[in-house]
Model the fold of this input.
Amino acid sequence: MIDSARSDASVSELIACPQCDALYNAVLPDMGQRATCGRCHTVLIAPRRGAFLRVIAFSITIVILMTGATFFPFLSVRVAGLKNASSVFDATLAFVDGPMIALSVAVTAVIVLIPVLRAMLVIYVLTPLVLDRRPLPGARKAFRWSETMKPWSMAEIFVIGVAVALVKISDLARVDYGPAFWMFAALVIVITVQDGYMDRWSIWKALDNPRQPDPSRSGDSAA
Amino acid sequence: MSVVDAYVTARARGLVACTRCTRVWPIGETRCPRCGSILISRRTRSLQRVWAWLIVGIICYVPANLYPMLRTQTLFTSSESTIVGGAIEIAHYGSYGIAAIILAASVLIPVGKFISIAYLALSMRRTVRLSSHARHKLYEIVEFIGRWSMIDVFVVAILSSLVQLSSVASIQPGPAAITFALSVIFTMLAALSFDPRMIWDDPKDNNP
Done:
């Protein structure tokens, strides 16, 4: 194995830890188990039964919830008979005056656009794999972009920001929650769960050989 | 998962690993044939980029603390508060937990991040006391925690869209909001430019 590591056939069965470059023979662990790097403990492979289908379901949920959470009223304040309701869309437009517009664009991107775009890219990539079809054109590029955008998806941080904002104005005004507040809270949970089901290695593997899709469904097959 | 050897690296085996999809290729390959990412065994020159982003990030952090983050106007009063000033104000109202969150997210985490990234970048080229394991842990923490500094920017966005009650009360974003956001973005880029694989190499091999 070590001697033949240069030939392409055996190279395809190796896996290198992206964090520390340690080299392993890739062996698909049992469903629900995780293969981690022995040196730096980065999770390398984490297959779960029916993962692809669930990731698609969660991604569709993300798109629907985010649409609602963006445009429905999020919070409303009341002071001395005056009332103002604000949606996430309004919050992202808070900086729209003058030079602050760049910040408005950035805030919209990280709390709304990037999470939705990532979910849509994942649906595009995984749907044909679940249906035992060939990947759609550009599927690999789509999944690569989705992974590159991951650190810039900040919906969960926005929710903590809401909590802080509530305390800041609680003595200034009365605050009421709108439907979008609860949608956004649910959204953060769905994003976390979706990420937990996403096994990058299985997805890349399935994109590599579309003939044997979704290793999470055949159960006992070793890669 | 069987180890090929006691932690043989892909580079030592004459291979180059794709950090995006973990596939391994012969060392001459420049673009991963599977996922299309650029293949580089070690991004040795990335250290310059790390330093550049980090310095710009620190520069942006200075005005972020000097200028006001929020301008609050009520019927008779108008006040401006900086990041630290706002946290102290909240602590005065008795919300110590929230004040601690703001201080942690806007002061402790950014400053800790500047120091950690600088330390990690310096440790690439010389022998340091912390082990590779400890430095990798530090890198993971920096990468994970950096995004949370955005909390304060979001707070400003929420408050200034919500509290718009004509003359009774209104909140406007201050100039610090933009420089603080830039500081967070630049330090995130510094952390992302970092190649964690170099933490595990002999520092002598990292000299160009």
